[in-house]
Amino acid sequence: MKKLIFALTLSLGVIGAGAQTVYDAMSIAQKDLNGTARFVGMGGAMGALGGDITTMGTNPAGIGIYRSNDVSFTIGYNMYGTQSNFDGNSFDSNKCRWTFDHAGIVYAMKIGNQTPLRYVNFGFGYTKSKSLYRNFTMNGLMGALNNDTYISQVRTMAQQAQENDAYIRTDFDSPRIWEDYNAGWLGVMGVKGALLDGDLNAVVPDEVDAFFQSRERGGVDQYNFNMAFNFNDRFYLGAAIGAYDVDYKKYALYDEDYGNGEGYTLESFNRIYGSGFDVKLGMIARPFEDSPLRIGLAVHTPTWYQLTYETGAELTSDVFLDNNSDASRLSASTFSDLGGPMVRDFKLQTPWVFNASLGYTVGSMLALGAEYEYEDYSSMKFKYPEGDEMAWETGEADLCLKATHTLRLGMEMKPTSQFALRAGYNFTSAAFNDDAVKALPVNSINTDTEFNNTKQLQTATIGLGYRSNMFYADLAFKYSWQKSDFYPFYNEVGNEIVTSMPTKVDNSRTQVLFTLGMRF
User: Fold this and answer.
1) Do the bridges between strand 263-285 and strand 304-317 make them parallel or antiparallel, or are there none, so unpaired?
2) What does each C-alpha distance from 435 to 108, 121, 327, 500 come to in angstroms?
3) Pairwise CA distance, residues 472 & 431, whole Å
4) What are the beta bridge partners of residue 484?
C-alpha cells in the first residue's frame, strides 16, 4: 500500500471538466531518437559535431558546419513489441509498419574567406519525433484488501459517484448529463450500469478476473526552420523555430468477470490532436586553434501546444444488484446520447530542455560524440483555452513526474574515404515517480483509469554509410528497450492508495532506417 499524498484537494476538480491527464501529455511530450540514418547510427550524439540535417532538432548550430548544400530523405521499417506478465498470464503484442521518418535540406551561403563571418546557412527539416504504435493486453485475478473485500474498478466508480452524490442521484437518467461540467463520467457509468447499490457503494464479489486491452496509434511530426552562422571556422551560432503537428489515438477496453455469469465491459475512445511550436538556440565552439575538440551548448524553450481532446465511452453490464433485480443486460453510451465524441480544448506547456555536448575528430577517419540533456517534466503546465491554469492537472504533473537525464554516445569510423561504420548508445532516466498514479478529478470525463509507469529507456544503434562525390546512402539499425509497471486502476481506501500487483511490461522497438541524399 502507498500513502495518498495530494497537494490539491478534490474541490479543485470543479473548476472545469477534467479531460486530459499527465499520462496523455507524456505520450506527446517525450521524443524518440529519430532522423537521418547517420544521426541515428551515431546515437544522436552529434550536437557538437554538427554537419547533419537532424541536428536542427538538438543543436541548431550544427548546420553551421556545412560548406555545401545538402538534401536527403529517410524511410524506416519499425517493429514494436510489448510483453506483459500478470498473475501467471503472459501476452505478446507486436506491430510492424513502414514510416517516412525524415526529410530536409540545407542551403550553405558562403560570405568570404577573409571576413570573420564565413558562412550563413539555412535549413529546413521534417522528423517523425514521436511514433505511438502499440498494442497491449493483460489478464488476471485482482488482489484483495482483506478477507472479504476485493479491489475493483467499480470502487473507483463509487468514489467518484459519492463525491457527486446529490447530483448523480437526481440527474443520471438525463441523456445530457454527459455535457454537464459537474458530472464525473466514471461515476455516471457505474450508476447507469447498475454497478453501484442504492447508496452508491460498490458491490464486488469475492473474485475479480480483470482483462485489459489497448491500441495506440499516431504520433507527433516536427518541422524545423533553421539558420546558422560560421565565424572563422571556430565558432558557430544557430537558431531554429520548431513547429509540431499532433495526432494521437488510444482505444482501451477494460472487463471484469465475476465468474457467476455477471460482469461488465467499459470501452474508452480517446484522441488528442493539435499543433505547437518552440524555439531552439545553440552554439558550437572550437576553443583551441590546434585541437579538433568541439563544445556544444543548446537550450530549447518549452513547446507551447494548443490541443483538442476528444473522448467517448461505452459500457455494457450484466451485474444484477438488489435495487435492479429485474434488469437484463444494461448499456450506456456517450456517443448515442451526445451524437458524437465530447470535445475539450486545452493548452500544454512542456519543460525547458538544456543540452551540452562534446565532439572530437581524428583527421577524417574518426569522429566521437557525447551529449547530455536535462528535462524536468514535473514543470509541465496545463491551461484552459482562455489561459487560466488547470490547477489539478498541473499539480498532478508536479506530484507524478520528475526530471530526466539523457546521455548519448556515438562514434563514426571511416576505414576508407567512401565508407563509414557507426555505433551509438542512449540512456534516459525514468520520468515517472515510483508511486505515481493516474488521479482523476471528481468531474473528469475520462473513463480510462489505467496507467503505465515507465522506467529508464535504453537504445543501442549501429550503422554504415557510403559517400561518392555527390550522392550518399546510409543505413542504421536501432533497438530500444524499456520496462514499465502497468495498473488497470487504483482504489483509494482512507488515506492510502491500493493497487493490484503491477503488470510487468517489457517494451521494445526495432527500427531500420535508410537515407538517400545529395551534397552539391
Assistant:
1) antiparallel
2) 50, 47, 40, 13
3) 38
4) 454, 505
Residue-level length of the chain: 520
Q: Do 157 and 196 meet the contact criterion of CB atoms below 8 Å apart?
A: yes
Phi, psi at 154, each rounded to 5°: -60, -30
- Which residue range(s) make up the domain with 12? 2-519
Between CA 353 and CA 349 the distance in angstroms is 12
61 SS3 class: helix
First to last CA, the chain: 63
Residue 14 has pLDDT above 80, yes or no: no
Cβ atoms 108, 62 nearer than 8 A: no
Q: Is the pLDDT of residue 16 over 60?
A: no
pLDDT tens digits, one per residue of 110-160: 998 889 999 999 999 999 999 999 999 999 988 776 656 678 999 999 988
- Predicted pLDDT of residue 9: 38
Q: Would you say the C-alpha torsion 413, 418, 419, 424 has a positive or negative sign?
A: positive
The grid coordinates of residue 506 equal 517489457
3-class DSSP assignment, residue 177: helix
- Give the model's pLDDT for residue 227: 97
Dihedral angle over CA of 394, 398, 401, 406, nearest 10 = 100
Cα dihedral 301, 240, 479, 86 sign: positive
For residue 494, CA distances in Å to 77, 186, 190 come to 49, 20, 21
Strand, coil or helix: what is 200? coil
- Where does the pLDDT of residue 3 fall: very low under 50, low under 70, confident under 90, or very high at 90 and above? very low
Q: What is the mean pLDDT of the chain?
A: 90
Confidence check: pLDDT of 301 > 90: yes
State how many domains the chain has: 1
Q: At what angle do helices 22-29 and 391-400 cross, to 10 degrees?
A: 70
Look at residues 440, 433, 419 and name the one whose alpha carbon lies nearest to residue 365. 419
> Comparing C-alpha atoms, which of 127, 100, 78, 129 is closest to residue 477?
78
Instruction: Convert the pLDDT of each residue in 67-98 to its tens digit.
Output: 999 999 999 999 999 999 998 899 998 889 99
Identify the pLDDT of residue 167. Answer: 60
Query: Is the Cβ–Cβ distance between 238 and 285 less than 8 Å?
Result: no
CATH of the domain at 420: 2.40.160.60
